[in-house]
Amino acid sequence: MKKKKILFINPVGHETWDADVKNYLTAYKEDATEVDVVSLKKGPHHLEYHYYEALIAGELLHTIKEAEKKGYDGAVIGCFYDPFLREAREICTRMVVTAPAESSLQLAALYGDTFSIMVGRKKWIPAMHRNVRLYGYGEKLASFRSLDMGVLDFHQNESYTENLLITEGRKAITEDRAEVLILGCTVQFGFYRELQKVLGVPVIDAVLAPFKHAEYLVALREGLGWITSKVGGFETPPLREIKEWKLEDQYRVPDLWE
Amino acid sequence: MKKKKILFINPVGHETWDADVKNYLTAYKEDATEVDVVSLKKGPHHLEYHYYEALIAGELLHTIKEAEKKGYDGAVIGCFYDPFLREAREICTRMVVTAPAESSLQLAALYGDTFSIMVGRKKWIPAMHRNVRLYGYGEKLASFRSLDMGVLDFHQNESYTENLLITEGRKAITEDRAEVLILGCTVQFGFYRELQKVLGVPVIDAVLAPFKHAEYLVALREGLGWITSKVGGFETPPLREIKEWKLEDQYRVPDLWE
Amino acid sequence: MKKKKILFINPVGHETWDADVKNYLTAYKEDATEVDVVSLKKGPHHLEYHYYEALIAGELLHTIKEAEKKGYDGAVIGCFYDPFLREAREICTRMVVTAPAESSLQLAALYGDTFSIMVGRKKWIPAMHRNVRLYGYGEKLASFRSLDMGVLDFHQNESYTENLLITEGRKAITEDRAEVLILGCTVQFGFYRELQKVLGVPVIDAVLAPFKHAEYLVALREGLGWITSKVGGFETPPLREIKEWKLEDQYRVPDLWE
Amino acid sequence: MKKKKILFINPVGHETWDADVKNYLTAYKEDATEVDVVSLKKGPHHLEYHYYEALIAGELLHTIKEAEKKGYDGAVIGCFYDPFLREAREICTRMVVTAPAESSLQLAALYGDTFSIMVGRKKWIPAMHRNVRLYGYGEKLASFRSLDMGVLDFHQNESYTENLLITEGRKAITEDRAEVLILGCTVQFGFYRELQKVLGVPVIDAVLAPFKHAEYLVALREGLGWITSKVGGFETPPLREIKEWKLEDQYRVPDLWE
Amino acid sequence: MKKKKILFINPVGHETWDADVKNYLTAYKEDATEVDVVSLKKGPHHLEYHYYEALIAGELLHTIKEAEKKGYDGAVIGCFYDPFLREAREICTRMVVTAPAESSLQLAALYGDTFSIMVGRKKWIPAMHRNVRLYGYGEKLASFRSLDMGVLDFHQNESYTENLLITEGRKAITEDRAEVLILGCTVQFGFYRELQKVLGVPVIDAVLAPFKHAEYLVALREGLGWITSKVGGFETPPLREIKEWKLEDQYRVPDLWE
Amino acid sequence: MKKKKILFINPVGHETWDADVKNYLTAYKEDATEVDVVSLKKGPHHLEYHYYEALIAGELLHTIKEAEKKGYDGAVIGCFYDPFLREAREICTRMVVTAPAESSLQLAALYGDTFSIMVGRKKWIPAMHRNVRLYGYGEKLASFRSLDMGVLDFHQNESYTENLLITEGRKAITEDRAEVLILGCTVQFGFYRELQKVLGVPVIDAVLAPFKHAEYLVALREGLGWITSKVGGFETPPLREIKEWKLEDQYRVPDLWE
User: Fold this and answer.
1) Gap between the Cα atoms of C27 and B217, Å rounded
2) Most buried by CB count within 10 Å: which residue of B254, E19, E226, F79?
3) pLDDT band at D255 (very low <50, low <70, confident <90, very high)
């Protein structure tokens, strides 16, 4: 079986979760998959605010483009806001790019009629709700349920987090009629199995969903040639302009664009 | 790698396409996949009419349930109307079931902003349009384009069909602003590669899309335990009732329901 | 006044409700209407599961087609999932066919801005919600309210059922702002009058709504020639194919298709 | 059979069409129906402009309320904009009120997957499109087709009008994939039969649809007690206020409100 | 700066609020604005019922047309149902017309992701909900919250009203996740500042929003020539017809239409 | 009248349009407005590709935040994709921020029932269509019309551009039934007046619309205290985090965050 090289990007300016996520993915990957996990050289510690997302735009996209150049087959943008997924697919011509919300929602829509998304804070809901609608799943959304915890808190006290996820997840099922749960943050990794066992519904993990999706889409690209259409909204910027305007110098990403 | 057994069902009462589809799938399957292709013992020769679809309900579902019992990991319902997909997922508790429209639309929504569906006859459009909306992709649909050919005609004169697909596909791209094409009938198998090459956009094949999707979903079930939620709309009928009412005798499907 | 012959079909494999429904309809029919009530020769005792619906496909449709051949003017499919309504209209060229959800929703949309649907189990809700949306009434739906009772329970203890309907109906009005109630199961027949009196809002009965609708549509067909369009999605399968493929033999319904 | 008294209102300030419409309705009415046709004492000659509609508000509603007082069972507002239908249902407590767009759209949604509406001028389209959406049928609308004729022109040269309706209707069917046509103006009465014959699809007449609908709804009110909900948006204004404010004097409609 | 003459219309048959509203607007107007406040010569005391709205159609529109003739630059229809806004824009060719719901919703959509509307009675909700959808903001609506008070009660005991607005507003924010509040009645004027201070979210006042909007739109018309399109749905009725039919005599509004 | 300081940002890495835009705005500004126009220190020459948009994220947002600190009352993001409008409103607590698409669409929705957007290339359409839907105006969109010109071409040969805008604008009106036109690129500035005169419909200029909107919203903030809600999706990132993580150093924007 052909090797699949996949890069999982924690789009934050610290390496706290990189090793854990790498171990996590390694446990779930296909045999032929090689997985690397990186974070950004600088940047905010989480992306709860949209400003923080905006700050990482350049480095995230250049990390992705560089991965394509280095021969990766797939890249995963590890944040449930799916930041710059559209832009990443625009600049890549060969490499698959996935992100948690899109990948999780496509699965949830298969596994049940309705789903709820477990978020950390109410602040996150409007932007995520927009994505749910843009991806086409507005009518299948049962609810958002907030834990009132920040991204950095989820692994401080894991049994507290787990209990809260179970409590709110159960309410989502009984009160909101959710048939499937989605963990609305990549840093909620590690909890889905227990939740699934206790609650008896599929619980989609936001790290594994886009990772397995990437493996799948890499196989489709390899075997069938299916990849982002370059006719229309995802047309790649012309190298000529990038060179002419010296964009690669201005944004210190030499050699990426060849 | 764990073996995946997948059954592709041509839900019609003749075996015309079984061998070809088997060869086709074999060329695209994962190494560890075993694929079988069957058609129904009786039934219409195509499903262009909704009455024809209705006729096959029992045999299709029992073929699926029997496959689950026999140890298949996945089944594909080989008709772009996705007939009885919901029911199949309701009765299965372990086996993955996929169907062409759902699988193709999820991919098309990833590969572009908009897509067009190439159908045989205008007659098919309203029911397929309903599915596009139900799956959540109504806003991404650029158009349906009809070839004015029946299901049984597509392989009569393949170069004629191919030319027509190219002509109508090109119109979909230039006039309707489609970024991706979907072949809206499983019997259009075999044409996607050439179309993709000529037209320069992803062309989703309605046989391969649900088949590769099934492989993917089987892996998710095996590795992560994700499968149709049984809380809510997909709750499985109770064996007790089926036995008590002797449904398995009435519909001559003994031994399936254990 | 011209006679109208209408067949009400209880699409289940037992006759339990046939006589009661016949008496019920007789009390509400137009003078010129002749009403018959039949159930199926075999089949499940209720249709709460979609698999059960699927099982009856052939016999239901052949009962309908046979009724058309025998000279019935209208047929009613007596289940709130509206099973195979689309298919029934496809195969009929002269006879009117109605079903509870469509007929009830059209009335509820006239009588108020919003409505709630009283169901037996939560299991039913997703499939019924899909129909509400497909018929165009998604924005008028105030809520589903579940009694947590099965179809076979409604008439076990009628005063219990009635009280529960009143309790949940009142919540629908005060908490969900429903202006109209719909009884979301044909086997809830017999309760609407009392509910209407107690709750002070229109309560649509799922047996009477499609029956009176059928009388109305028969009158329109007779007087104005209005009937299902045969151009497009409801085009009838060609007799030639049915004969050629011996479908009528395979499904043991000889002589229907002439 | 109980008598049904129905008043058809041509909501314009001239009697030009009253006799013709009365004859027309008489040919299509149930035996037990008594039909009267009236127009307004003053007012514009047509309602193509929304200002003209607004002008007739008071007289139209008082004509309707007076009809209820006089014992009519139903009233039809004879304009495809459905002017003041909501208000009419608010003030009536016993009498049924119908209007062309609502009644026609409910039928079109039954008879096909899609429909087109034949209008006189493009000017009419936005307001009618709004109604199509409000009634829930936005997704079933294939197109509006305009004849570029005013309301007052339709019967000037009937064969010209008929030919134009046939030409545009045929385009709606072949180019826009309409399965049903709706005549989007009451003054297009008289053409539907021939169109139906020539074009082979149901053609809904905007005079007959609300009239037959009224007969149907009167039967439901009589037999089942179904009528506009008075809990919520259609709650009737309190007589106390009307009296206290002397509204009935201000608007010269003494004695209506008892 | 060019003078802007704006007329605020309290579309009811009494002058109770005119002086207060004039003072209110005067405190918020631009320096160059001249504001007048009028009510109607006759009419209901409030517009909670749609029949009451309908009654004022003629006088409201003629007041507006007369204002245009007298040289006003803008008119505000002072009722949150936005009665006859469409008609007013149809008959005006130069003067700007605004109304509370449209103006408030456009602001709320800018200031937050979601909003709640504080209404007096549940009765109002369905018609206002229709407007929210028609203006395009259905997906941003968090909730309607009802005070169970009539229009005439809001200023009877202002501290009671204020407390209730605070209580219900807080629930809208915490339970319904509203980010912005809209006061859904012009007669709730005067409360927004305190609510804003106490609740910490923008609170849109239904008198000020359309008034300031009118000032803005007048500036756009003056400076850029932007005003209602007269091609399509807002085409003005032809003077020729109005004269020929003597509409201006019938509705006693001589000399308006020149 | 209180002074309003407004900054118009051409979010590209060259000053080509700054002086022209400044003159343009100066001709249309209120007396009390002071307007500045800036572009970015580095960056692409246009933003037709989403990658180019992403590159400017940091500098655009810091330019905006710096403007707020310097005492500007409003900032305009001068690109019809409305890049980072949401983020800008999140980080600002006092200053108004507007952008072309949102401001233009709100006006177009007032001036007509439907509008068309004139774009440079088909590439732009999907992302702009997404915004049209997110802002709530999907149902009012008549069409996108593409000139097949790049941003840098519009002012190369102005009479060519003008003629093309007139030709395509006329088609939008007659074929797509647009009642209003929107110029879907800020660099189409300067053409609207002539188009308006020739075509007879409002033509919204994408530079002027957000600029005048900013003036309006500044007045509302000053006079009424209305500004972006900070409860929910637009909650501002906490200064504490920004300081603690030294984000302002990492992204070289010292002193902004106090």
Assistant:
1) 54
2) F79
3) confident
In chain E, domain spans: 4-99+208-250, 101-204
> Does the domain made of A4-100+208-250 have the CATH classification 3.40.50.720?
no
| SS3 assignment, position F181 | strand
The residue of chain C nearest to residue E144, with distances taken between CA atoms, is: C177
Query: Chain F residues with CB inside 8 Å of A61's CB?
Result: 51, 54-55
Q: Which of D25, D15, D52 is nearest to D206 (CA)?
A: D25
Task: Note the helical H segments in chain F.
Answer: 18-28, 50-55, 57-70, 85-91, 100-111, 125-134, 158-174, 192-199, 208-224, 239-244, 247-250
**Please, do chains C and E touch (3+ CB pairs < 8 Å)?**
yes
Cα separation, C232 vs D112, in Å, equals 8
CA B172, B176, B177, B178 torsion: positive or negative? negative
Which residue has 């029949």 as its token pair?
E51
Are the C-beta atoms of A126 and B247 separated by less than 8 Å? no
- F27 — pLDDT class (breaks 50, 70, 90): very high
Chain D residue numbers with beta carbons less than 8 Å from the beta carbon of E42 are 250-251
Of B57, B122, B245, the CB nearest to C54: B57
Q: Are E34 and E3 in contact (CB under 8 A)?
A: yes
Rg (CA), chain D: 18
pLDDT-derived band of residue B254, with 50, 70 and 90 as boundaries?
confident
In this prediction, residue A258 carries a pLDDT of 67
What's the mean pLDDT in F78-97?
98
Reported as a single tens digit per residue, the pLDDT across D33-63 is 999 999 999 999 999 999 999 999 999 999 9
Residue in E with minimal Cα distance to D84: E54
| Domains C4-99+208-250 and C101-204 belong to one CATH topology | yes
Number of Cβ within 10 Å of residue A38's Cβ equals 18
Spacing of C-alpha B23 from chain mean position: 17
Distance CA F190, CA F174 (A): 24
- ipTM reported for the complex, 2 dp: 0.97
Question: What φ, ψ does residue B113 adopt, rounded to 5°?
Answer: -80, -25
Asked whether the CA dihedral F134, F137, F143, F144 is positive or negative, the reply is negative
Q: Which residues of chain A have pLDDT under 70?
A: 1, 258
pTM of the model: 0.97
| Residue F256 pLDDT | 83
Asked if residue B235 lies in contact with residue A112, where contact means CB atoms within 8 angstroms, the answer is: no
β-sheet with D203-204: strand ranges across: D141-146, D115-119, D180-183, D203-204
Tokens for D205, please give them: 């007449």
Chain-centroid distance, C-alpha B28: 16
Question: Quick one: what percent of chain A has pLDDT higher than 70?
Answer: 99
CATH numeric code, E101-204: 3.40.50.12500
User: Measured between CB atoms, which of E139, E200, E227 is closest to F202?
Assistant: E227
Residue at D202: amino acid letter: P
Residue D238 structure tokens: 């309190």
DSSP B85: H
**Mean pLDDT, to the nearest integer, of C111-131?**
98
Nearest Cα residue to E183 out of E28, E79, E37, E45:
E79
**Which amino acid, B19?**
A
Residues 6+ apart with CB under 8 A from D70: none
Q: What is the reported pLDDT for F257?
A: 76
Does chain B reach chain E with at least 3 CB pairs under 8 Å?
Answer: no
Q: Residue D192 in contact with residue D204, Cβ under 8 Å?
A: yes
The two structure tokens encoding residue D14: 């001239």
Tell me the CATH number for domain C4-99+208-250: 3.40.50.12500
> How much is the average pLDDT of D241-251?
93
Rounded Cα distance between E155 and E157, Å, is: 5
